Amino acid sequence: MHTIRHTKNIYAGVSRIISVDLNAKRFDEAKKFGVTEFVSPKDHDKPVHEVLAEMTNGGVDRSIECTGSINAMISAFECVHDGWGVAVLVGVPNRDDAFKTHPMNIMNERTVKGTFFGNYKPRSDLPSVVEKYMNKVS
Asked: What range defines the domain where residue 101 resides?
C-alpha cells in the first residue's frame, strides 16, 4: 500500500492505478490509497499481462512489483507498453529463480529496473537522510 501512495506522489496527475492481487478482498483497502481498478488473476482465463493490455489499449506505462514472486515479476514486465513502458521490480525473488521473457519484449523498448532503495544511492544519499531525520527536517 505504501508503494501505491508513493506512486501517487511521484506521478502527480495519474488517472488510473490498477492493482493486481490474488486476494480480491484487498481492493477496498487499496482504494483508500488511490487504486482505481483491481484485477485478480484468478478471475481470468488468460495471463494477467494480456488482461492489462486489453484494459489499457496495449499495456501500462509503469508497473511496480513488490511480492518477489518471479511469475509476478515477469507479468509486471510483460504488461508494460511497448516503446515506453517501465517495470520496476522491488520484491526480492528466491535465489534460484530465473527471470525469463521473450527477447522481443526487450527489443520492443520496454524497460525493466530493479531497486532496493528506490532512487537512493546509499553511500551518497543515506547520510543526508539520517542528518535530516536527526535535525527533524522534512
From this structure: 2-134
Task: Return d(Cα 10, Cα 61) in angstroms, integer.
Answer: 14
Q: What is the pLDDT of residues 43-55, one digit of tens each?
A: 999 999 999 999 9
For residue 44, what is its C-alpha cell?
481470468
Q: State the Cα–Cα distance between residues 128 and 4, nearest whole angstrom.
A: 25
The number of distinct structural domains making up the chain is: 1
Cell of 83: 516503446
Three-state SS at 12: coil
Joined together, the cell numbers standing for residue 122 give: 546509499
CATH number for the domain harbouring residue 106: 3.40.50.720
Angle at Cα 104 formed by Cα 103 and Cα 110, nearest 5°? Answer: 100
This prediction has a pTM of 0.78
CA 1 to chain centre: 11
